[in-house]
Write a structure and sequence with these properties.
The complex is a heterotrimer of chains A (218), B (205) and C (243).
Chain A (H helix, E strand, L loop, with lengths): L1 H12 L7 H17 L3 H22 L3 H8 L2 H7 L4 H30 L7 H26 L5 H28 L5 H30 L1
Helix pairs in contact in A: 1-6, 2-3, 2-6, 3-6, 3-7, 3-8, 6-7, 6-9, 7-8, 7-9, 8-9
Chain B lengths: L1 E11 L2 E12 L3 E5 L6 H8 L7 E4 L6 E4 L11 H11 L6 H6 L15 H15 L3 E5 L7 H16 L3 E5 L10 E4 L19
Parallel strand pairs in B: 3-7, 3-8, 5-6, 6-7
Antiparallel strand pairs in B: 1-2, 1-4
Chain C lengths: L9 H32 L14 H28 L2 H33 L7 H22 L3 H29 L19 H44 L1
C-alpha cells in the first residue's frame, strides 16, 4: 500500500509529473482577478475568500485526469487491478496521493496568495482550515470522476462537466467558512458541514469509484 | 495446484467471441494459445487473469493465483528499472528483485531510467515483473514482441525455471519459443456462433 | 398474475407501449390543452400579481416533472444495477433529455415570471440555483451516455453517476439553502398555513400537472422504444460481424 503512495508522489515530483502546475495555475488565477475586477483593495478583500476557494478548486480539477489516465495508457492500471490490492484501497490511495501532491501545496500556499488579494487578517486561519478540511473531499470526488472517464478519448472536458456539479456542496461550505472567518463571524456550522461532507465522501465514495473503475477495466 | 477452465465463453465489447473453451494446466505445465488475429486470445487471457468476467463457464483458480502481462508493460518512464521492479515487488508483497533482474539480464541497466530503455529492454523489464509477483500462474499475452533471439531464449529459460518450481504458464504467442514441452491449443474452432434464431428478448444478443 | 418484470423484455415493452402510446398521447394533449386554456383564460387575475401569475400553469408542472424525471432515472438506474434489465437502463437514458428540457422550461418561465415580480430575470435564490444545478447534472449524465461506445458499460457508469449525483444534488440543495435564504415563495401547493393558493387556481393547475405527467410518460415511452430499436440495430450489426 505504501509503495503505491510513494510511487505516485515520486512520479508527480519527477520531471513531467505535473507537480507544481496546479500551484502555478492557482497563482495565475489569483493574479488575474485584480486585473479583472480592479485594484481596489476593499473590493478584493470582500471577494478574496471566494476567489481563493474557486481558484483552489480549479487547480485541483486541472490535475484530475492524471489520476488514472497515465496508469491506463501504460498498462499499469490493468496490472494494479490484478495485484493483491482491493480496488477500493487502490482508488483511496490514488485520491490520497492526489491530495498530497495537489491539495496540500494549495493549502500551504493559500495564505501567501491571500496576501495578494488583501484578505483581512482574521481570515487567514479559517481559509487555511477550510482548505485543509475541504481539499481531501475535492480529491476523493475527483477520483470518482477520473474513474468514470478513464479510457475515454478526450475525457478531460467530460471529466470537468461531471465533477464540477459534485464539487458544489464542498465549495459552498468551504467558501462560507472562509468568508465568515474573514468577516470575523462565527463559522462553526459551515465548518461542521464541510467536515461532514469530507468524511462522508471519504467513507462512501471509494466504493462507487472502485465499482466504476472495475466496469471501465473489463 | 491445478488450473481447470471449463466451458469458458468470453466477450469483447459486449460481443461473444469464443465459447465452450475447455483446458487444464497442472503444476509445471505450459499451454500456448494459437489462433488468427482478432479471434479472442487476449480476451481469454484477460478473463483468466480476472480482469473481466466470463460470459459463462468456470476458471478453477482464484484470480489471486494469476500474474498477468499484457501488451503494455506498465512501466513508468521516469522511474529507474530498479524502482519499477521494487514497486511491483512491494505491491505483490515479495520484496526481492535480484532474481528477476538476473533472469532477464537487467542488472547492468538497473539504475537507468526506464524511459531510456529500448523497446526490447522495456519488454524484458515487463517480463521480469512476472518473476517478482511470486504467483503460480503466469498469464502472458504475446510476451516476445520486440525481443531479439537472445532475449527470447532468456524468456524461455525464465518460463522453464518457473515451471520447474511448480508454476504454470498460459500464453498467446505466434513464434516458436523452443518450449517443446508446452502444449498448444488452437482456439479458432471455439469461435462463437451467432444465435441461430431471432430471439429478441432481455439480452439483445 | 403476471410479474411486472415481464415488461423488462424489450419485445413485450414495445408491444405494450405501442398499444398505450396513442391513448396516452391523446390524453396528454387533451389534459394539457384543457389545463392551460382553463388556467390562462378562465381564472381571475391575482390581486397582487395580475395576469403574470398565469405562467404558473407552465412553471410549476415543468418544475415538478424536472424533479420527477430525475427520480424516475434514479429508480431505473437502481433496477438496472440490481436486476440488469436493459429496458430499464434505456428508459433512464430516454428520460434524461426530457427531464433536462423540463428543467429549462421551469428556469425560463421562472425568469419570465421573476422579471415583473422581483424586478430581475435571475437571482441566486436557492430554488433557482438548485434547478440550475439539476440542469448541470442532467448535462453531465447525458454527456457520459454519449461519450461511451459500449452500451452495457455506459449503462453501468451512468447508473452509478445517477446514484452518486442524486446524493450530491440533495446535498447541494441543502447547501444552497444554507448559502442564501432566497426570494422564492414556498412550494406552491404546500399545506403550510398563511398564503395559500385558492381553489380557483388550483384545479386547472392540477389538470395541467396531470397533462405534463402524461406528456412525460408518453415521451419516455416513445424515446425508450427508439433506444431499444437503436440498441437492437447495433446488436444486429454486431451479429453480422460475428458471421
Amino acid at each position: 500500500m505504501k509503495a503505491l503512495l510513494v510511487r505516485d508522489i515520486r512520479l508527480a515530483v519527477r520531471a513531467g509529473g505535473g507537480f507544481g502546475l496546479g500551484l502555478a495555475f492557482f497563482l495565475i488565477v489569483v493574479v488575474l482577478v485584480p486585473f479583472g475586477v480592479g485594484p481596489d483593495n476593499g473590493v478584493l478583500a470582500v471577494i478574496a475568500p471566494g476567489i481563493l476557494w474557486v481558484g483552489a478548486l480549479l487547480s485541483c480539477l486541472l490535475s484530475l485526469d492524471r489520476i488514472f489516465a497515465l496508469d491506463w495508457e501504460d498498462g499499469s492500471l490493468d496490472l494494479l487491478a490484478t495485484a493483491p490490492l482491493p480496488m477500493e484501497t487502490l482508488v483511496t490511495l490514488k485520491a490520497v496521493a492526489h491530495w498530497l501532491s495537489t491539495g496540500v501545496p494549495l493549502v500551504l500556499a493559500s495564505p501567501l496568495f491571500a496576501l495578494l488579494l488583501s484578505l483581512p487578517a482574521a481570515g487567514y486561519g479559517p481559509l487555511a482550515l477550510s482548505l485543509a478540511l475541504g481539499t481531501p473531499a475535492l480529491s476523493v470526488i475527483g477520483t470518482f470522476g477520473a474513474a468514470l472517464t478513464v479510457g475515454l478519448k478526450r475525457g478531460g472536458l467530460l471529466l470537468s462537466l461531471l465533477v464540477l456539479p459534485l464539487y458544489m456542496p464542498t465549495l459552498i461550505f468551504g467558501a462560507e467558512v472562509a468568508r465568515r472567518g474573514a468577516q470575523g463571524l462565527e463559522f462553526g456550522v459551515p465548518l461542521a458541514m464541510l467536515a461532514g461532507i469530507t468524511f462522508g465522501t471519504i467513507a462512501l465514495l471509494p466504493f462507487a469509484s472502485a465499482a466504476v473503475l472495475r466496469v471501465n477495466l473489463r | 495446484m491445478e488450473l481447470n477452465v471449463t466451458g469458458l465463453s468470453v466477450a469483447r465489447g459486449g460481443i461473444p467471441v469464443l465459447e465452450g473453451l475447455d483446458f487444464s494446466l497442472r503444476a509445471g505445465e505450459a499451454l500456448i494459445l494459437r489462433g488468427p488475429n482478432g479471434v479472442g486470445k487476449t480476451t481469454v487471457l484477460r478473463t483468466v487473469a480476472g480482469l473481466q468476467p466470463p460470459l459463462a463457464g468456470k476458471i478453477g483458480l482464484e484470480r489471486e493465483a494469476m500474474a498477468y502481462a499484457g501488451h503494455a508493460d506498465g512501466i513508468k518512464t521516469t522511474l529507474t528499472v530498479r524502482e519499477n521492479l521494487e514497486f511491483w515487488a512491494a505491491v505483490f508483497g515479495t520484496g526481492d528483485i535480484a532474481a528477476a533482474l538476473a533472469a532477464f539480464d537487467l542488472i547492468p541497466l538497473a539504475e537507468r531510467a526506464a524511459g531510456a530503455l529500448s523497446a526490447g529492454q522495456k519488454r524484458r523489464l515487463g517480463l521480469a515483473r512476472m518473476v517478482v509477483t511470486g504467483r503460480p500462474v503466469w498469464v502472458l499475452d504475446e510476451p516476445t514482441v520486440s525481443l531479439d533471439a537472445g532475449a527470447v531464449a532468456l524468456f524461455a529459460q525464465a518460463v522453464r525455471a518457473h515451471l520447474a518450481g511448480g508454476g504454470m504458464a498460459l500464453m498467446a504467442t505466434h513464434i516458436d519459443l523452443g518450449l517443446t514441452e508446452a502444449r498448444v491449443l488452437d482456439v479458432a474452432p471455439y469461435r462463437a456462433k451467432a444465435p441461430a434464431h431471432d430471439d429478441f428478448d432481455g439480452s439483445f444478443l | 398474475m403476471a410479474s411486472i418484470w415481464e415488461y423488462a423484455n424489450p419485445k413485450k415493452f414495445i408491444q405494450t407501449t405501442d398499444r398505450l402510446l396513442p391513448w396516452m398521447s391523446v390524453l396528454a394533449a387533451v389534459t394539457l390543452v384543457v389545463g392551460l386554456i382553463w388556467g390562462f383564460f378562465f381564472t381571475p387575475d391575482d390581486f397582487r400579481q395580475g395576469s403574470t401569475v398565469k405562467i404558473i400553469y407552465l412553471h410549476v408542472p415543468a418544475a415538478l416533472m424536472a424533479i420527477n424525471a430525475w427520480l424516475m432515472m434514479l429508480v431505473a438506474s437502481l433496477v438496472w444495477i440490481i436486476r440488469r434489465h436493459h429496458v430499464s437502463a434505456l428508459a433512464a437514458r430516454a428520460a434524461a433529455p426530457v427531464g433536462a428540457v423540463m428543467t429549462v422550461i421551469a428556469l425560463a418561465t421562472g425568469a419570465i415570471w421573476g422579471q415583473p415580480m422581483w424586478g430581475t430575470w435571475w437571482a441566486w435564490d436557492p430554488r433557482l440555483t438548485s434547478f440550475l444545478i439539476l440542469f448541470l447534472f442532467y448535462l453531465g449524465y447525458m454527456a457520459l451516455w454519449a461519450a461511451i461506445e459500449n452500451d452495457d458499460t455506459a449503462a453501468d457508469l451512468t447508473s452509478v453517476l445517477c446514484l452518486v449525483g442524486s446524493v450530491f444534488a440533495l446535498l447541494s440543495r441543502y447547501a444552497v439553502n444554507f448559502w442564501n435564504q432566497g426570494l422564492h415563495q414556498g412550494a406552491s401547493l404546500s399545506v403550510a398555513p398563511g398564503e395559500r393558493i385558492s381553489m380557483v387556481y388550483k384545479l386547472p393547475l392540477y389538470v395541467s400537472m396531470t397533462g405534463f405527467a402524461l406528456l412525460f410518460i408518453a415521451l419516455v415511452f416513445l424515446r425508450t422504444q427508439t433506444e431499444i430499436r437503436g440498441r437492437r440495430m447495433r446488436a444486429l450489426l454486431a451479429r453480422e460481424r460475428m458471421g
